[in-house]
Design brief:
Chain lengths: 469, 307
């Protein structure tokens, strides 16, 4: 009701706002909350107070007053604008706020053959949900179906043999219900990054610094003579873990499983960040937080609008470097890139951006599920360009192989010079032995994981994903 | 009603100083800090509600300057806390004066006097770090407390700040809770290297500072570099905005524009040309890759007359 009074024209402003203050505050707060902007009663009270202070006689003033109080990050600005202009009418002409959470990279259509399956429609629906990222999903049909997958399918008590079977089954051959089981198994993977020294100190008997405060306190008991020196040492803390996952068409069969892996990683500690990319780079750290994997993955699907489109690894890496990496997120971190290295853009860009990233990061681990797959082909120019800057290349196409990813992440120190990949030259001629050349480029033992005979993946027809069947 | 509001006279004084948003904008312009309506409104609210103000934006858009300007118009000290990794209470809030404590213990011993722990850990032996200084500021108007680059500190430190942000008080185990008589105006800045905790954001007003539009940028650099000609300032602003549009790693901020104009006028450059740009490029672009990109695009084109 307030909305309608207000959206008339200029005359209302002086009167309505003054008369209807509580109603305006309540209506705006409620609608903001519905759009996912966190509105607390405290903030609403602040807003009411702010309105009496700024005395908004123009819509611009009202806009900025409300925004200052309710918006606490670029991520909420879009939702706020949407609500504000739906309540108070037209958009301010000069006011555009681009959230830097989603960056568009123009990408050509993917020319690779996509695996055909029923889920394509469901996905395009989800991609329309687009950038209204954190809004509580669940209205769309696709989402509901995905939900049922998680909650109605009976998960048989996984016996040892079952777990073993799952452990070596390639992700692209998994049935939807197996994915839920897989999640439980994945949470057992211990993802720990190498440690680093921080500047923060803590008590310790053999520390290198004298803790004056404690020394003095104990010296009170001995008449001011510091008989025993209390010591402190630098606290050790795990490095940040940054995961970048390719969700383009060619990675589709693995995307869902990797997203679960990302979620486990994001839950591994406060210092983990997750991104996905195809034509854009989307930060998923927030979306993946939480206990329920089904919900988290729905949120993630809604947040990233570019599922199974073309890939621009180079541009995605550039965006990451520009927006996040350079500012400090990648500094001293372990960066994990999950991608098959199929680059639609210029591989030279991939090389350049990987070089930049390598200068910032502590280690770069590249996870490429095709390293061990039958049809793996080194034509992926992006992969070749990126290789000199990677510290480890692992396959990670099965649960067991993911264990190797965890190993590669945890390696304490890695001398880049010793990496066999540093000396790796792409074969001049892409001959039959190409697979071996790649296999030998993997520094982590057994990472070119051999598929057990008989369970070879049949790509395309049993694609796990958001399938509702 | 706000738990951390300035009291009585101080609040009255601030109200007189900034009765409305326009006056605040004019006063800020008076100290050479030019704001758009969004930033003016947010700063106004930060002063009058009052509530801590969280500023985010690219490097060099004037986040830190905002706090300085506020301190100037209020004519109060600016107390700055530069955050870094591992910063803790001893470096941000207070530390005990250990040598002095030791000396006092000895002295008391020699005189056979009693020296209790409560004396030893009293205000006399306290070394005040920035946060404590801001809380104990005697007035008459509140100090401006700038907590710079909060994202560089770790999340433990954020949690430590909550009490300060919410109630303008801190608790010291040995002494008790210290409540500010003149709660400081708090400005936090962040470069978004990581997300701040919601609990911090909830307590703050938020503003994203963007690059200024061309006209405002010309005004800003001319105010900061006295004696620079308008032609030169306009050319610098144009060239800077072209640099921001090109594909470089670190687009120059307003701070770089000011540095550049200052360098150019120091060299006595009247009109910006390719040669002048070449000589001074280092004051704008700090990555050799970026300089290459701009050179490759052609310096002539960079200084070409605007459309």
């Amino acid at each position: 009701m307030t909305e309608r009074t207000v959206s008339d024209d200029g005359v209302f402003r002086l009167e309505t706002i003054h008369l209807d203050l509580p109603a305006v505050v309540a209506a705006l707060s409620q609608r903001l909350r519905m759009e996912g902007v966190p509105v607390t009663p405290e903030r609403s009270a602040h807003f009411a107070e702010a309105l009496t202070l700024t005395n908004p006689i123009t819509r611009r003033r009202l806009y900025w007053t409300a925004r200052a109080v309710f918006v606490s990050g670029p991520a909420h600005a879009k939702a706020f604008d949407l609500v504000f202009f739906s309540v108070f009418g037209q958009q301010l002409d000069d006011e555009k706020f681009e959230p830097d959470e989603i960056q568009t990279i123009s990408a050509p259509e993917d020319e690779r053959p996509k695996s055909k399956h029923k889920t394509t429609d469901g996905k395009s629906e989800q991609s329309e949900a687009g950038s209204m990222s954190m809004s509580p999903a669940g209205e769309e049909d696709g989402d509901d179906d995905a939900d049922e997958d998680g909650e109605e399918v009976e998960i048989p008590v996984a016996m040892a043999s079952e777990e073993e079977r799952l452990g070596t089954k390639s992700f692209d051959a998994l049935e939807p219900h197996e994915l839920s089981q897989l999640y439980r198994l994945m949470t057992r993977l211990e993802l720990s990054t190498p440690l680093r020294r921080t500047r923060r100190k803590k008590k310790g008997r053999h520390g290198e610094h004298v803790d004056m405060r404690r020394t003095l306190r104990s010296s009170l008991r001995t008449g001011g003579d510091p008989i025993k020196l209390a010591r402190r040492h630098r606290r050790i803390k795990p490095r940040r873990l940054v995961m970048l996952c390719d969700i383009s068409g060619s990675m589709e069969p693995y995307a869902r499983a990797y997203l679960q892996f990302l979620m486990c990683a994001a839950g591994a500690g406060p210092d983990a960040e997750a991104f996905v990319f195809a034509t854009r780079l989307t930060r998923l750290t927030r979306a993946l937080a939480g206990r329920n994997p089904e919900r988290a993955i729905q949120r993630a699907a809604a947040a990233a609008p570019d599922w199974s489109s073309g890939t621009r690894i180079g541009d995605a890496l550039k965006t990451f470097n520009d927006i996040h990496g350079r500012r400090g997120m990648a500094r001293g971190a372990v960066v994990v890139i999950l991608s098959d290295g199929w680059e639609r853009g210029d591989p030279a860009v991939v090389g350049r951006e990987m070089e930049r990233l390598a200068r910032l990061a502590h280690r770069i681990v590249w996870v490429n599920p095709r390293v061990s797959a039958d049809e793996f082909s080194p034509q992926a120019g992006g992969m070749l360009a990126a290789l000199p800057h990677c510290d480890a290349l692992v396959s990670g196409h099965t649960l067991k192989a993911l264990g190797e990813v965890a190993d590669a992440i945890a390696v304490e120190s890695w001398d880049r010079k010793q990496s066999p990949m540093m000396n790796y030259k792409p074969p001049a001629e892409l001959a039959d032995d190409e697979e071996e050349a790649w296999g030998s480029a993997t520094p982590v033992a057994g990472s070119s994981f051999a598929m057990p005979s008989g369970s070879s993946p049949s790509r395309g027809n049993t694609t796990p994903g958001w399938a509702s069947d | 009603m706000s738990p951390r509001g300035a009291t009585g006279e101080a609040a009255e004084e601030i109200r007189e100083l900034v009765p409305d948003v326009e006056t605040l904008a004019q006063r800020l312009a008076g100290v050479d800090y030019l704001v758009d309506e969004g930033l003016a409104t947010t700063m106004f609210l930060a002063l009058r509600l009052p509530q801590p103000l969280l500023l985010e934006g690219e490097a060099g858009v004037g986040k830190t300057e905002a706090a300085k300007a506020l301190a100037m118009i209020l004519d109060t000290p600016l107390i700055r806390l530069q955050c870094y990794e591992g910063i803790d209470a001893a470096e941000a809030l207070y530390e005990w004066n250990y040598p002095r404590q030791l000396l006092s213990i000895r002295l008391a011993d020699a005189k056979h006097a009693e020296l209790g722990e409560s004396e030893l850990f009293g205000p006399d032996y306290l070394i005040r770090r920035p946060l404590m200084t801001a809380l104990e500021h005697p007035g008459p108007r509140p100090a401006v407390l700038l907590i710079d680059e909060i994202d560089r500190a770790d999340d433990d430190f954020e949690a430590f700040l909550l009490q300060l942000l919410g109630e303008a008080s801190v608790t010291i185990p040995e002494i008790g809770t210290i409540r500010a008589t003149h709660p400081p105006i708090i400005v936090l800045t962040s470069n978004r290297t990581r997300d701040l905790h919601d609990a911090v954001k909830r307590r703050c007003l938020y503003q994203w500072i963007d690059y200024p539009n061309r006209q405002r940028e010309v005004d800003i650099v001319r105010r900061r570099v006295k004696g620079a000609s308008e032609t030169l300032a306009v050319q610098v602003a144009d060239a800077i905005s072209r640099m921001r549009e090109s594909d470089i790693q670190k687009p120059p901020g307003v701070a770089e524009a000011i540095d550049w104009l200052a360098a150019l006028s120091l060299l006595g450059v009247e009109r910006l040309d390719a040669d002048a740009v070449e000589r001074t490029l280092g004051s704008v672009l700090k990555y050799s890759e970026d300089q290459e990109v701009i050179r490759a695009a052609g310096l002539e084109q960079l200084v070409g007359s605007s459309d």
